[in-house]
């Protein structure tokens, strides 16, 4: 893990993993002995090459050749991708497992280089060895994933994510779009370990914010594994210190684990996980003592199994079938004011290319989740933010009839926002209902007497109760508390099975 903290901008794009993977294969138990054997090999390589495996040093190329040789023998298609940094040649090892959907790629990565001060067995032999053994287990089990699996070992991470940045920068845009998720494992065997999972949904509310759409699902998969073995986890921020950085910067969802570096374990963390409070998670971080004795076997074993669980769960999940969707790029038969009871005088729901408005922050969003159009309450901006906002009461719009299959599971998802000024109240709202033989409210966001800026969010709901029925999606919004500034938008409505 590199020392310098870089600034990373996480672009929230609509690249979404299935929220509930279907028919995922059971994950194997990864052999701790095998992982430690890889670490012994990396230690021997460092010892024979000046005590390190750093960028541009012979120990790094020997490490890359060791990893590549293991993968070639296991049936992977490998590439030794070279790049130049600081006048020295660096290498990424890229390994593709045959099969899976080439337009739906799950990448798993770890940096392979050490600093010049030492052999880098925890940082990051631990992550490199763990994903290597997971990849070899993929081969032993002749796994046939639904997604295409690609593993990567990055060079020159310690010098500023140079290898992973080179890889991402040199991917054509179409190839970037095919990568639907990236899992990163950097320092997973710290001697005084914590159990940290990258905070994909920003539930901690600190630091850089959430990862791109789909990161929350990756976080949950990993959390589910640790929950299953009774180990509590805590979030760690996307602070730009490891190789997920170049991926989230171009909108690729990311996740992964981390057991701690130079940070000091608190008393609360020691109570939670054991170990020594007041001491670094890894006292040998970036030092010559980061050797094969600088590993906590329990943490390494748990994290290796978590890696396998995440790979098997995400990669073998059968993607849901789209039953119905609307991105609002063309007219598909939505009906405004379907019951003839709307009272809004301006800002009625319409399909169109929205114009941005601001008032103490973004109110109507001028950017959609996909394409050019969305459903929006009065798409025009006007001379001031209040010219075309929702006024006078309720506005509603209803989808065309949608016939649902008789078997599920069935899930509705949509992107949405509600924005209002501080003159709003709890009488204002944004609401989504599903109307069949019964009517169910699946989303109800009320206003408040506080400023709320527009920001796209994703909502999901089960439609299992409507299986076999013909339903309509009814969306309404209200400015019901007087002259308050209210805006709302909807995009990318989808029903899957």
Overview of the structural elements:
This protein is of the alpha+beta class and 497 residues long. The protein is built from nine helices and 20 strands. The protein has helices at residues 32-48, 58-73, 121-140, 162-169, 173-178, 215-228, 245-248, 267-273, 297-315, and strands at residues 77-85, 88-96, 101-111, 147-154, 179-185, 196-198, 234-236, 254-258, 322-326, 335-336, 349-352, 374-377, 393-398, 402-403, 411-420, 429-435, 439-446, 457-462, 470-479, 486-496. The protein has an eight-stranded mixed β-sheet with strand order 1-2-4-3-5-8-6-7, sandwiched between helices. Strands 9, 11, 12, 15, 18 and 20 form a six-stranded antiparallel β-sheet that branches. α3 (121-140) packs across α9 (297-315).
């Amino acid at each position: 893990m590199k020392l310098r903290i870089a600034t990373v901008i996480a672009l929230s794009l609509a690249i979404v993993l299935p929220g509930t993977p279907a028919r995922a294969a059971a994950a194997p138990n990864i052999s701790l002995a095998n992982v430690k054997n890889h670490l012994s090999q990396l230690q021997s390589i460092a010892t024979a090459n000046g005590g390190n495996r750093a960028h541009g040093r012979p120990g790094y190329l020997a490490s890359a050749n060791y990893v590549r040789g293991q993968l070639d023998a296991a049936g992977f298609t490998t590439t030794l991708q070279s790049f130049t940094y600081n006048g020295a040649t660096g290498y990424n090892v890229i390994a593709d497992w045959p099969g899976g959907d080439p337009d739906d790629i799950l990448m798993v990565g770890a940096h392979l280089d050490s600093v010049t001060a030492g052999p880098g067995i925890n940082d990051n032999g631990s992550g490199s060895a763990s994903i290597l053994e997971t990849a070899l287990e993929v081969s032993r089990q002749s796994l046939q994933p639904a997604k295409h699996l690609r593993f990567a070992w990055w060079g020159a991470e310690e010098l500023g994510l140079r290898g992973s940045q080179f890889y991402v920068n040199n991917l054509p845009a179409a190839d970037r779009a095919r990568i639907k998720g990236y899992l990163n494992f950097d320092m997973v065997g710290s001697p005084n370990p914590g159990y940290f999972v990258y905070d994909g949904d920003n539930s901690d509310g600190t630091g850089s914010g959430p990862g791109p759409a789909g990161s929350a699902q990756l976080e949950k998969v990993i959390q589910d594994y640790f929950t299953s073995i009774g180990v509590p986890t805590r979030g760690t921020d996307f602070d730009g210190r490891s190789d997920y950085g170049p991926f989230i910067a171009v909108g690729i969802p990311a996740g992964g684990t981390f057991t701690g570096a130079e940070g000091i374990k608190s008393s609360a963390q020691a109570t939670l996980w054991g170990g020594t409070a007041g001491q670094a998670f890894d006292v040998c971080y970036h030092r010559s003592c980061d050797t094969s004795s600088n590993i906590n076997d329990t943490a390494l074993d748990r994290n290796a199994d978590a890696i396998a669980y995440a790979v098997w769960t995400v990669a073998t999940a059968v993607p849901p079938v789209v039953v119905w969707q609307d991105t609002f790029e063309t007219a598909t038969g939505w009906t405004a004011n379907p019951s003839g009871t709307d009272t809004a005088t301006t800002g009625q729901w319409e399909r169109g290319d929205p114009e941005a408005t601001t008032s103490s922050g973004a109110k109507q969003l001028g950017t959609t989740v996909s394409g050019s159009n969305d459903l929006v309450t009065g798409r025009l901006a006007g001379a001031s933010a209040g010219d075309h906002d929702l006024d006078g009461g309720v506005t509603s719009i209803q989808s065309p009839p949608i016939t649902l299959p008789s078997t599920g599971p069935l899930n509705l998802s949509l992107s949405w926002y509600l924005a209002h000024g501080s003159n709003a109240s709890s009488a204002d709202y944004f609401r989504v209902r599903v109307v069949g033989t019964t009517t169910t409210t699946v989303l109800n966001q009320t206003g408040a007497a506080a400023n709320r800026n527009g920001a796209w969010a994703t909502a999901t709901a089960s439609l299992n109760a409507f299986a076999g029925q013909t339903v309509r999606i009814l969306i309404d919004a209200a400015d019901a508390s007087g002259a308050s500034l209210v805006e709302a938008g909807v995009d990318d409505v989808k029903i899957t099975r």
